[in-house]
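Open question from group meeting: does this chain pack into something compact, or does most of it stay loose? Before anyone orders reagents, we agreed to write out a predicted structure and look at it together. Recording both the input and the output here so the notebook holds the full record.
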Amino acid sequence: MTPDTVEKTPLTLLGLGAMGTALARTWLAAGHPLTVWNRTPARAEALSADGAEVADSAAAAVAANTLVVVCLLDDASVEEALAGADLTGRDLVNLTTGTPAQARARARWAQERGARYLDGGIMAVPPMIGVPESGGYVFYSGPEELFERHRETLAVPTGTRYVGEDAGFAALHDVALLSAMYGMFAGASHAFALIRKEDIDPASLAPLLADWIVAMAPAVHHTAEQLRSGDYTQGVVSNLAMQVAGIPTFLNTAEQQGVSPELLSPYFELMRRRLAEGSGEEDVTGVIDLLVR
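Structure tokens returned:
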């Protein structure tokens, strides 16, 4: 066989929202036989012209193939869609956004019904699907053998990153990265708010802000090493005492600019608490220990 005639793994996809549709079109374009189902039939019918087989029920779609990918609204939607399906012998890959606890519970639920289970956390938006240079990928967790069995097929829409046997790890990595993203958005929002009333073009601040965030990003590696070693004084450049001493400047500037400090204040409060409880020679890494209950 030539590479063009190698048989492609057939699969089923449940859920055809924006992300599900993007996944479906990519698998179809790559030559994978695809059976689809969606609660709103019109979305499924739209893919039939591209070669998809449209099932009239989720149970029928599941019955069509061993590999079943689920991309629905939430965990409750997964339970509802699969309630009447026979999962015996199926390889269930759940790309529905959820919590680590939900993923672990869903893995047990699938196993009790005779299925093998992988959980996934999508680190991409629909326009990134099918575009290798976009940098998108999906975290996967669950049995490594199962991931390896389907790795090539799962890698067709976007990159793959396997993060461990624990079914909850994909969701945990997903939420951890997205939490950092929202923290970055919060800081950027505060920065733009500070100049909002001034004669400063936001477009002139944007490249400076982007470059600064990129320059600071490698600090996460330093934080990771301190957490691993337990020594928060290792390689400190600006210690906690120095940074806490600078907090009034940030708060006073916000007040003078008529900007609420509510996006920064919680972090500053943690810094102050850590200084009171720990060493001023530490890095800010110690605030992490205050967050863990």
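Observations to bring back to the group:
The mean pLDDT is 96.
DSSP finds 13 helices and eight strands in the chain.
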